[in-house]
Amino acid sequence: MRRAHHPQLGDITLTEVMAALSDPIRVGLVRVLADGHERGWGELRAPVAKSTLSHHLRVLRDAGLTRTRQEGTRCFVVLRREEVQERFPGLLDVVLAAAEADDVGRQVGVKAARTPA
């Protein structure tokens, strides 16, 4: 796998961020990641094919909203909340509040942890 590109803080544009947040699945991913925990791609649950989920994660990364880390064959993603807050103060808080109020992205979540038998 080639190394993921992450835009520098000054290169993140409002139009790219807003375009990335124009899809309910991507808003749902941001809602899930807003807790600050890094998640493995395999932990994420969305009503789309794995390839489509990968596309959504790439759009968020390319817009500067998330950071992806590869460890062996696994990929992990985290919301760049503090960096986005520095670049666009209050934007994510407003988007997350509106998404919560309108229930946007509710179909995206985290897979339940398996319990030992």
From TrEMBL:
The keyword DNA-binding applies. SMART domains: HTH_ARSR. Pfam families: HTH_20. CDD domains: HTH_ARSR (cd00090). GO terms for molecular function: DNA binding; DNA-binding transcription factor activity. Keywords: DNA-binding, Transcription, Transcription regulation. The keyword DNA-binding applies. PANTHER family: TRANSCRIPTIONAL REGULATOR, ARSR FAMILY, TRANSCRIPTIONAL REGULATORY PROTEIN. This is Metalloregulator ArsR/SmtB family transcription factor. It comes from Nonomuraea phyllanthi. The lineage of its organism: Bacteria, Bacillati, Actinomycetota, Actinomycetes, Streptosporangiales.
